[in-house]
Give the backbone structure.
Amino acid sequence: MHEWALAESVVETVKRHLEGRDSPKLRSVTLLFGELQSIDQEIFEEGIKNLLMGEAFGSEVFHVERERAVFRCNRCESQWGLEDRPDLQEDEREAIHFVPEAAHVYMRCPSCSSPDFRVEKGRGVLVKSIVFDENLVNEKDLVNEKLVGEKDTSE
């Protein structure tokens, strides 16, 4: 059950960012779940609730956003998402969710038919931001810490 391990990573990441702050009051934590990351949000949220028992903050500060998958052709630079591929069968979509690299087996660029494309967005889990009461939306609170999936190399 990887949702519990993921919840534990999120809680540990937040605790790490709380260290060294003078009586910090946690206001919100925004998580970004990629469309290609197969996560049962209900189990994840239950894990967060259980892991936060006895902590100074509760699960109500956690908010999940979803990031759509975006693919980009390496040949013609065309972009598309899973919603642009109604021809994919349910079992093919499921395979792509479990192993995103499987997309190369089931998809081609809709513009030039090339099998040479990459996943631009929608992969992994990211702690997007942590906001404290003493300094709302401060640059240092925009964490962008990837917990699951490939590290973003565009920075």
Summary: The helical segments are 2-18, 41-51, 90-98, 103-106. Residues 136-141, 150-155 have pLDDT under 50 and may be disordered. The chain is about 25% helix and 25% strand. Residues 92 and 106 are 7 Å apart (CA to CA).
